[in-house]
């Protein structure tokens, strides 16, 4: 059911030999007769400067929707929202499929490279392990190396006899 249209000044409703109705930029509906009584570019209701738009079947659909019933608007916009939602869902699925395909290709490449690395490691002769000079397996970790190894002698006893001896 459409919203009843009436003049906000004289409260007349549209009839067969009806004057045209206008919508002001401040949101008031005024019939043509009352509009002629008022000042140009000023609203008869709130006295603010305004523009006037004559209402007709050619009026912008956004303006026409102001006069539609809520149930009609809900049906109209519900259909539009459903179409938009389906469109967006289709694109999300397309993007997801792309990323899944890309991930599968990358996983396959990773699997192949890993396989090649294992094959190369099997083909390579085993490396001989040489012990490092300071390897902990070559000597007791609690032993202290002798200072003579580097050519210097270090003794805890003085080389000169002390006078106390």
UniProtKB/TrEMBL annotation:
Annotated stretches, region: Disordered: 113-165
Keyword Zinc among UniProt keywords: yes
Domain RING-type positions: 7-47
Keywords: Ligase, Meiosis, Metal-binding, Zinc, Zinc-finger
Pfam families in UniProt: zf-RING_5
Segments of skewed composition (Polar residues): 127-153
GO terms classed as biological process: homologous chromosome pairing at meiosis; protein sumoylation; reciprocal meiotic recombination
Any GO CC annotation of this UniProt entry: synaptonemal complex
Gene3D superfamilies hit by this protein: Zinc/RING finger domain, C3HC4 (zinc finger)
Highest taxon of source: Eukaryota
GO MF annotations, alphabetized: ligase activity; SUMO transferase activity; zinc ion binding
InterPro entries associated with the record: Zip3/RNF212-like (IPR042123), Znf_RING (IPR001841), Znf_RING/FYVE/PHD (IPR013083), Znf_RING_CS (IPR017907)
Protein name: Putative E3 SUMO-protein ligase RNF212
Organism: Mesitornis unicolor
